[in-house]
Design a protein that fits this description.
The chain is of the alpha+beta class. It has one domain (about 40-195). The chain is built from 5 helices and 9 strands; from the N terminus they run αααββββαββαβββ. It holds the Pfam family Ysc84.
Length: about 200
């Protein structure tokens, strides 16, 4: 008579081995604890991080507060991470505010080529200064800087003032890192998509 016990024992050992391996590999993933957060927790985290980012922007450029107040929509990406060796990738999540209220959540991705060893973090704030620019952004299924619209990245002059020509563009952008506002940055190729949060 055929003895099924050794076969079942081998199957049980194999399943146990796979389970242990799965636990080991889970500890090695690059997934952050935020990915397991609920949608409500992610929204709350993004909202508070966006508030902090705007606070830093106002400190770095007091004149930016006036621009933000005039904007029809403000898209804040508090933490855009980039990292690579030769070919890089950037990714971050943000919140769109219209009339001071949260109006949607978005992700941003971009690629880059060149030596950039190590991970870096930056914040991006995009100001939609006209109703038309905001409507075009909100009605798009995927929006790319350079292809769908031009973003005028703000440069701060030696006197600490924002360039008046830049401030009059339909979409104005600020990019900051730990050292403050970044100058000479291009956002061309940055893709922004709506998130279901």
């Amino acid at each position: 008579m055929f003895d099924t016990f050794p076969v079942l024992r081998r199957a049980g050992l194999a399943a146990a081995a796979i389970g242990v391996a799965g636990l080991m590999f889970t500890g090695c993933t690059t997934t952050s604890p935020k990915s397991s957060a609920t949608a409500t927790e992610q929204r709350q985290s993004l909202n508070s991080a966006a508030d902090a980012t705007l606070g830093k922007l106002y400190q770095a450029s007091p004149q930016s507060k006036e621009l933000v107040a005039r904007a029809k929509g403000v898209l804040v990406f508090p933490d855009v991470l980039s990292g690579s060796f030769i070919i890089g990738a950037e990714h971050g999540k943000g919140v769109l505010r219209v009339g001071g209220a949260n109006a949607g959540y978005y992700s941003t991705t971009a690629g880059s080529v060149g030596f950039q060893a190590g991970a870096q973090s930056k914040a991006m704030v995009l100001l939609f200064m006209t109703d038309e620019a905001l409507a075009k952004f909100r009605n798009s299924s995927g929006w790319t800087v350079g292809a769908d619209a031009t973003v005028a990245v703000v440069n701060i002059g030696a006197n600490g003032r924002i360039d008046t020509n830049t401030a009059q563009q339909p979409i104005v952008g600020f990019v900051m890192n730990n050292g403050g506002l970044m100058a000479g940055v291009s956002l061309a190729g940055t893709k922004i998509s709506k998130l279901d949060l």
